[in-house]
Structures are given as C-alpha cells and as structure tokens.
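Researcher: Go.
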Amino acid sequence: MNWLTNFVRPKIQALIRRNDVPDNLWTKCSSCGHMLFHRDLEQNLHVCHHCNHHMRLTVTQRLNLLFDEKTYTKVPLPKVLADPIKFKDTKKYTDRLKEYRTKTGNEDAMTVAYGNISGNPVVIAAFDFGFMGGSMGMAVGEAILVGADLAVKSKCPYLVIPASGGARMQEGILSLMQMPRTTIAVEKVKKAGLPYITLLTDPTTGGVSASFAMLGDIAIAEPGAIIGFAGARVIEETIRQKLPEGFQRAEYLLDHGMIDMVTHRHQLAKTVGTLLGHLRFQSSGLASLSYVSKT
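Model: Structure:
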C-alpha cells in the first residue's frame, strides 16, 4: 500500500475541494503553446491573444457569431439511412454515430439555419468539425440541398461554411455521390440569380473542397485556414518536391487568386453583412420561410 497515494493525496484533495474547480479554465493554443484563460478566449472569439491563431468553433458558436443578436431558426433536415453499407472497423458505424450525437448534441455534421446578418436575410449551412471531423455523408448532402431549396424559395443569399476533412469513408461510394449532388444544388441557387457565398474555415479539404466549397461567387476564408484537396505530405511524396512555405493556407490561396478575401474573425459578421447588403435583391425579409414550420 502506498501511503502517500492512498491516504495523503485524498486528504489534501478533500481539503482544497478540487472537485469544485473546473478542469477547463485554461486552453493551450495549438499554434504557439500559450495557455489562455477560457473567459478571455471566449471574449476574443476563440482567437489566440499571442499569435492570432483562429481556433475551431462549434457550429453553435459559428452561428451565434454571424447572426444578428444570436437569433436564428434551425431548419428541420430529412432522415437518411443510418448505416447504408453496414460498415465496421474498430466499432460499428451506428455506434460511432450514437457517440458523436451524444457528444455534440447534433444529428450529423451539418446544421442549416436562417435569420439575418446586419439586417439582411440569409440561409446558412454550417459544418461541425466536432462531428466525425465534419465528414460529408448522405446527411450532409441532404442538408446542402435543403439549404439551397430554402434559399431559392425565399429568394435570399445562401452562405455555406465548410469545416471538413472530406468524404465520410463509412458510407463508401454514397459519400462520394454527394459531390455532384451538392454541386447541382449550388447551380440551382446561381440559376435563380441568388448570391452563393462560401466562408472557408480550418480545415476545408477533400471532397468538400472539390465540390461546393470552391464554387462561391465570393469566397471568404479565416486567417490560417487549411484549404486544399490532398494533404501537403501526400502531395510532397507524390511530386517529390518541397512545397512552398504556407502552402494550402488561406493567405497563400489569396495571393494566388483562389479565394477573394481573408477576414479576421472579429470582422466576419460585419464583412458578410456588408456583402449581403450589396448583393441583396429587391425582395426583403423572410416571410416566405414560414413553410419550414410545416415540414
């Protein structure tokens, strides 16, 4: 029996009431390594005070950041087959889904909502990277389509916010089929003469970047976001050459004409609101969105 471990430590812990002290008071910046107090980090919109690194946001944090007064309405999304190819690796796909649904409180990796940004009506489809790395499966494909249909019916802009590692391998070829499906959905919005805007966040990769993510009429990115198809290491091994410094980062893509602007998180809501104001059509408000409650 270890006297220090089994007797002294429990006594000390009881005295200082360690259980009453939250474990998440501090967050370590993954870029510079500085420890950041959680309240200061929240007030700074999860941007590191020391190196300006933009940390990943949950889908709720992202929507609260953009919509006026954090007010918006979530759109009901259709159910899809839970395990279409009966996939199993170290655990069943259905078990993974249950795990992430409990962890995130969301049914899948995408949320569709509508509201106003700077008084301008907009439909937003946002990824949650915390749900299986924001991987794109059938549920995400359906969500993109629902958002596009809603934007067309309400005659308002469509804003998509990727944060994804790419297609979801647990759904096999069905996940890859979402690439052309979502591309067609985007074309539907454009044919209706409506603005389609993408806000590229860290990371935007794989099949997501190879489809709807890079089709925006205006492509905005957060500073430092990784944007590309294959990973840098895979590319280097394939072409047997050293890649340029900052390759696949938002700033590199901006310099090479792949995106339109890199905007600090503090300025995102204002910038998107200004763009929507310039692009806004004659019809205002979201009265036609009342059909959503009937679905």
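Model: Residues 13-55 form one domain.
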